[in-house]
Amino acid sequence: MASIVLEALAIEKSFTQPDKNKLVILQNLDLRVEQGSVVAITGASGSGKSTLLHLLGSLDSPDRGQVHFSGQDIGAFGRKRLAAYRNRDIGFIFQFHYLMPELTVIENVASPGLIQQFQREPAFAAARGLLCEVGLQDKLEAMPYQLSGGEKQRAAIARSLVNGPRLLLADEPTGSLDWKTGEGVFAVFKRMIRERGLSAVIATHNPQLAELTDKRYLLHGGRLEELS
Question: What is the pLDDT of residues 155-166, one digit of tens each?
């Protein structure tokens, strides 16, 4: 039986609206992600997919409930351990690549490694290897504006892996791309996950993309429903 790398237990999250009414986003939500699996979270716009990923990645905190990583409650992490969780244990990929426009492609990909290790050579060596894996070996010194949309997302995938995380969190990773380009980007994403034995949670509104994952859930009414 595969081990559980990430677990959300009875998660609740709500926001107070301008009219002071409470908007409930997630309620009594449970999720378990096995080591080496790729999980898709589908749902309508505004259903809470991004909110859930933010909670899993400790970018926000639940009102109630717990998120466990490798059996540890991330809500109990101290400041340094929480920073290490965000920068080392997990990798983020967003709909928009968020590459820094003033840095070259290899500098962008190496940047999380520089934050973690404070050593230029290992960070750039890892970045160079990953860019070759995603097919951008001829774009190392290019600036982000010189890349196509698909190339920018492949660079973002490489950046998310530079610190050797165990878990990837992807929020609409192909949402800004046409289907053909997005399918190619996702194929690269999934291959690199499989080769490394990683786990991933992907929020997407694209049912075709979701069907390419190991397990699919529909987020509706604040809860997750597993899809066959």
Answer: 998 999 988 899
